[in-house]
Structure formats: C-alpha cells, structure tokens
Specification:
Length: about 170
C-alpha cells in the first residue's frame, strides 16, 4: 500500500513534472517536496490541498483510512499544530516588543517634559533681573541661565517631534 509520499511521487511522475516545478507551483522548496516523497516529513493540510488542486485529485486519494493512514493524518495534524504554536510565539514576541516600545516612548516623553520644565524654571530664575533692577546688568548676567534655556528649548523641540511622530504613526494605522 502506498503512503502519502509515494502517492505524491507517482502523481508527479505521471504528470512528468520535476520536484522543482512542483515546488514552484506549490510555493515551497524542492527539498520540501523531496522530504514529502521520501516520507521524512508530511505535508501540512494547506500543502496537501495545494497538491490535490495541482494534480486534480480528491483528498481522499491520500488517505485509505486504515491504521497506517491514520498515523499520516496525525503527523499532518502535529505539523499544523507546531506551525500554529510557532505563529503564536511570533505574535507574542511582537506584542512584547510593542509593549517595550510604548514603555520607552512614555519614559522618553516624560523625561523630555521634565527637562523642559526644569530648564525653563532655572533659566527664568537666573536670567530675570534682581528686584529693583529693570534690566539684568553685565555683572549679574549668568551664562548658566542661557544654557538652561537653550537645553530646555532643545528638549521641548524633541518632545514635540516625538509626539508628532506618534500621532502620524497612529493615523497611518
């Protein structure tokens, strides 16, 4: 009695198709087709459907519903479950990555906002004239105040840029 791999091999030979041609038609690799034919691996349900469509055969052709074919069905199901668990793991990793990105953005925005506020307060306190003076004299002029104001402005510009990028990114989705 033929197994799934032998049946794929026989169909391919009857149609006169190479492993490369079949692999290209099924959007897989020649190595995968070879593994199917040598029973080193069972095709997934989707791939088996594609094989059926390509050779114009019914899916029942591959399963005789005796004890040996029941094992083949289980192996196909196990491969599908493995692919499903891998895709779940990938989506969990993407979800965690999005969480870390969101946390990083939140911390960045908070730090930049605090820097802007602190620098604005310090700059204002240092640059403003003493009580009774209308203008800050050269004697009281403090470069630290100017530097604080410049750092505050730069951090404020960075903060606004990040917020604009976040808003643009949300509107694209």
């Amino acid at each position: 009695m033929e197994n799934v791999g032998e049946k794929i091999f026989n169909l391919r030979k009857q149609k006169g198709v190479s492993q490369e041609e079949l692999a290209f038609a099924l959007k897989t690799t020649r190595q995968t087709v070879s593994k199917w034919e040598n029973n080193l691996m069972q095709p997934s349900i989707e791939n088996l459907k594609s094989v059926c469509d390509y050779f114009s055969v019914d899916a029942n052709y591959f399963f005789d519903f005796d004890e040996s074919s029941a094992v083949n069905v289980e192996e196909v199901t196990e491969e599908k479950e493995c692919q499903t668990s891998t895709s779940k793991t990938d989506s969990q990793m993407q979800s965690k990555m999005k969480s870390w990105k969101a946390l990083f953005l939140a911390i960045s925005v908070t730090v930049l906002a605090l820097i802007s506020i602190v620098c604005a307060i310090i700059g204002y306190m240092v640059i403003t004239p003493d009580q009774g003076q209308e203008v800050v004299s050269v004697d009281h002029f403090n470069y630290a105040g100017i530097i604080c104001v410049i750092v505050g402005i730069i951090s404020l510009v960075c903060l606004v840029t990040i917020i604009v990028l976040i808003v643009k990114n949300k509107t694209k989705k």
